[in-house]
Amino acid sequence: MDLTLKIWRQKDSQDRGGFQTHKVSDITPDTSFLEMLDILNDQLEKKNEDPVHFDHDCREGICGACSMYINGRPHGPQQGITTCQLHMRSFKDGDTITIEPWRAQPFPVIKDLIVDRTSFDRIIQAGGYISVGTGGVPDANEIPIPARVSNEAMDAAACIGCGACVAACKNASAMLFVAAKVSHLALLPQGNVEAQERAEKMVEQMDEEGFGSCTNTGACSAECPKGISLEHIARLNREYYFAKQSSDNIPAEDEVHGAG
Amino acid sequence: MSWLSQALSSSLGKKLLMAMTGLFLIVFLIGHLLGNMLLFKDDGGQAFNEYAKFMTTTPAVLVLSILTYISIIAHVIYSIIITIHNRKSRPVQYAVSNASANSVWTSRSMGVLGTLVLIFIVIHLKSFWFEMKFGSVPIVAYDSGSIKNLYLIVVEAFSQSWYVAFYVIAMMVLAFHLSHGFKSAFQTLGLAHIKYTPLIKTIGTAFAIIVPTLFASMPIYMYMKFHGLL
Amino acid sequence: MSFDAKIPDGPLDEKWNHHKFNIKLVNPANKRKYDVIVVGTGLAGASAAASLAELGYNVKSFCFQDSPRRAHSIAAQGGINAAKNYQNDGDSVYRLFYDTIKGGDYRSREANVYRLAEVSANIIDQCVAQGVPFAREYGGLLANRSFGGAQVSRTFYARGQTGQQLLLGAYSALSRQIAAGKVQMFTRTEMLDLVTVDGQARGIITRNLITGEVESHSGHAVILASGGYGNVFFLSTNAMGSNVTAAWRAHRKGAFFANPCFTQIHPTCIPVSGDHQSKLTLMSESLRNDGRVWVPKKANKGLTASEAINVSEEDRDYYLERRYPAFGNLVPRDVASRNAKYVCDEGRGVGPSGLAVFLDFADAIKRDGKETISSKYGNLFDMYKQITGDNPYEVPMMIYPAVHYTMGGLWVDYNLMTNVPGLYALGECNFSDHGANRLGASALMQGLADGYFVIPYTIGDYLAKIPYDKVSTDHEEFKKAEAQIRSNIDKLLHSKGSRTVDDFHRALGKIMWDKCGMSRTAEGLKEAKKEIQVLRKEYWDDVNVVGVNEELNMTLEKALRVGDFFELAELMVDDALNRNESCGGHFREEYQTEEGEAKRDDKNFTYGACWEYSGPDTDEKLHKEDLIFENVKLTQRSYK
């Protein structure tokens, strides 16, 4: 099939950027979306033009690197998959495909379709862990955990940190990402010990990074490649309110961030 | 109390205030609806007028009404704060967006719907509350005494077709606002559970249909009654 | 150069304990005086960086990905072995040790493997404490499954995403140390060279992938946990970015590279669909529990899956069941892979390329019902359909082997230190534990064992003996290495040749796959060596790398990696040519039993082949580490 690609090109974070139109032809339906871009890049390199830069690594839907906003949707027209799992049979001959980077203030564009998602790492660093060091832990079977609870924790833990939730959200909110981690750890007895502090710290970091507020549109969950449910956001809300009303974490007056 | 102001100024705290004020206004709607149902009583407006007097003179109601005004104002102010913040979170918009593929338009349009509801509230207050308080409302004498005849004002207002139409449209807007707002408030409060969430969603949808429909039926009823269409 | 495996004395089951007592410790107050560089943030790297930081060392951690959470360990599906014996089915440390040695075809070191089995149980405890949501039984205790033909159920798993969950556990521990200020994290930063001062590893040269800046980092020790080199074949199940550069650069600075020819080929991958193919996708091995492998009896190239359902039973050849009646479709990975190659070589392969065999679930669905099959393999079937467009509930899957794991790697001693003092290699990057073939669910075990439970002890023994003084990055060795890297980059950018980097990489991969892949011959290997040399020369003369160094330039990143793949490829061929036997992942057609099975030569090849770099265009020098088996008896595998 022959396709017209409208791709966001931006030299670096300082550049204003803009759309460029490229054409590819004779693409087979079995080609993956990223391989289609490989073909385009091959063409560009042969013409001594800068190839389109995009994040990708495992190409099997688990590393969370690929991140493209395709025809108005994160990871393209299909639900429940990442961009690397998208194949060209989801498009028609002659289609024009618009490809943009994730758009969010905390995800600045580095080049073309590549954005900086280190804000996610900083949120995890703020508290997305259980504070145990290596060694000196109890036997793995010491605390029985109901299979149902473990399964629910796994549902949340499946998050690949791709950022499609932020990209999909009209408010660029990172609630689903934060909720997935808070929920995963709060559900488990091991993680429950510091659940309150974790929720407080991670939300604080999320706000500091400049992500928007959740307005419960559900776009995040609908576009999440791992189908992480909105229930985890409700759990985060709960955890946070309980933490705020009962934790002994009292900030100094000058640490209080102003509203808005 | 630094912890409280910090909590309420966080993104989740602001949302909590939105949800709580929203839910309070939902409760208000029920009370307001039940009272105004007296318009359907075929007694020339006596019950309605007595109810109006009760509502404007009882101290407990005054406290409730102040709470309602505060809720409306807080709901509006916080929605503005949140909206401004959310706009800043995405300084560069997408060139192509296919949001309808992943969310319902009402959930994405709460700001617009809310603004329309606010305009309605202002006009509504001007037409009735302001008239009742500060306007020259004719007095009607009943056995129990002479009181302001608000019913007459209502009859006059709803005898005009454009005014009825405005009310009906406003109630449709309210219905859409509620269709997302009701269940969203519960989600924000963290009240989600595999057993109860479907129930909350059903009640929310039913509420969003029934309450505005009943409200809208009042101007229609009054109009038809005035023009002898009943 | 001399080298000593430093295997502790004493009985096998006491070696590690004794060793831990005998090695030197660094005083807790002095640990902060040492800087440790860790390259790679997969299971081995992230767990090592976190554990060392917890102990008090200053750690600098590097990854080329945008986040440490994206290292390729994340893609491991099946599970992680541990000798917990929770199932009461006769597992023990000794049995896991024995299975690993036997599975590795007796080409690994007894002491290392025993230690691996010993610490395996601690790994599960550690991961559960971190919040890894392993699968559980209804009673709330951990579930296990049998994996890769093991006779006991010792594999712990988290759905089909075990690697992801374990990595996120290690990543969370790492994140905690980053927040504590004990780990300085460098993302989108690639190691391009090792710096040695007076023979000791004292730092690395990196390139910032966003700005192109070439930078020096100094430390008291350098730990490489940079993964395997399967991408030398161009197509593999590795991530696109996986590369050999860090390990290879260390090799060039003196570290021995051991057993490079030991490559694991996984039998159940989705076949190549065309020239555009960029990587291969693994389908879990568990599919062979219910799927039946077949090809048509008569050559029928181009046969599609939807036509296959019309091929009658008598025209089908269930070749694994026919040749291996006892194990059938469950023969080990290398046997299944090789047989797929043979039937395709006979021209009986299917699909448009003729390089595929069927994996058929029709009988299983008939027997157990669609629902049962769907509950077992639902997500795999969906994944297959997503990629190929075929529905495996209705038509057979098509599969073909693909490069999956490399057992070879940097030579390390019992302390996981290479022969370069202060340079360590962990996880897939080293050669230590899997011999000639790795068992399923053992890669994750090794990565975490090395990072959590070995290196934190053994590194102290080295650091305790060296002074606190730091080497300045202004030292001439750093400057020399930086200059070398810059000139390499310049050379690539100014070559302005006619072929793309991928073009060369694809050509190299084809040589390697055809002649140094699943089955090798002396003749083919000799040809391969010549072809690689020619291609390598062409590469440096005729490659076209567009763009500049000072910007994010993925073509340049790749060009640097491919440059190292060429040198590695040649060494792999040398090693395969040297090893005149067949064992595990190395199959030489000249050395097979009458039944066509791998035939080892224990008399002459019970050694680790350790190669010493001797300069460009010079054959590397072979050193042998004799493998001494005091506890297990060497036997020939048989799956008939």
Return the average pLDDT of chain B rounded to an integer. Answer: 95
How would you sum up the global shape of chain C?
globular
Assigned CATH superfamily of chain B: Fumarate reductase/succinate dehydrogenase, transmembrane subunit
Q: Strand order, biggest sheet of chain B?
A: 1-2
As a percent range, the share of helical residues of chain C equals 25-40%
Assembly level? heterotrimer
| Gyration radius from CA atoms of chain C, angstroms | 24 Å
Specify the biggest β-sheet of chain C.
5 strands, parallel
Contiguous uncertain segments of 5+ residues of chain B: none
Count up the domains of chain B.
1
**Strand residue content of chain C:** 5-15%
CATH-defined architecture of chain B: Up-down Bundle
Q: For the largest beta sheet of chain C, what order do the strands appear in spatially?
A: 5-2-1-9-17
Percentage of residues assigned to helices of chain B: over 70%
Largest interface here, residues on each chain?
Answer: A-C, 77 and 80 residues
Radius of gyration of chain B: 20 Å
CATH architecture of the domain at 266-404 in chain C: Alpha-Beta Complex
Number of helices of chain B: 9
CATH fold-level assignment of chain B: 3 helical TM bundles of succinate and fumarate reductases
Number of helices of chain C: 17
Commentary on this structure:
The complex is a heterotrimer of chains A (260), B (230) and C (640). Chain A has helices at 33-46, 118-125, 147-157, 164-168, 175-187, 189-192, 195-209, 219-223, 231-246, and strands at 3-9, 18-24, 69-70, 73-74, 96-100, 109-111, 114-115. By secondary structure, chain A is an alpha+beta fold. The termini of chain A are far apart. Chain B has helices at residues 2-9, 11-36, 46-57, 59-89, 105-108, 110-134, 150-157, 161-188, 197-226; strands at 139-142, 145-148. Chain B has 230 residues and is mainly alpha-helical. Among the domains of chain C are: 266-404, Succinate dehydrogenase/fumarate reductase flavoprotein, catalytic domain (Flavocytochrome C3, Chain A, domain 1); 477-600, Fumarate reductase/succinate dehydrogenase flavoprotein-like, C-terminal domain (Methane Monooxygenase Hydroxylase, Chain G, domain 1). Chain C is globular, with a radius of gyration of 24 Å. With 640 residues, chain C is of the alpha+beta class. The chains are: A alpha+beta (260), B mainly alpha (230), C alpha+beta (640). Chains in contact: A-B, A-C. Chains A and C meet through helix 1, helix 2 and helix 3 of A and helix 2, helix 4, helix 5, helix 11 and helix 12 of C.
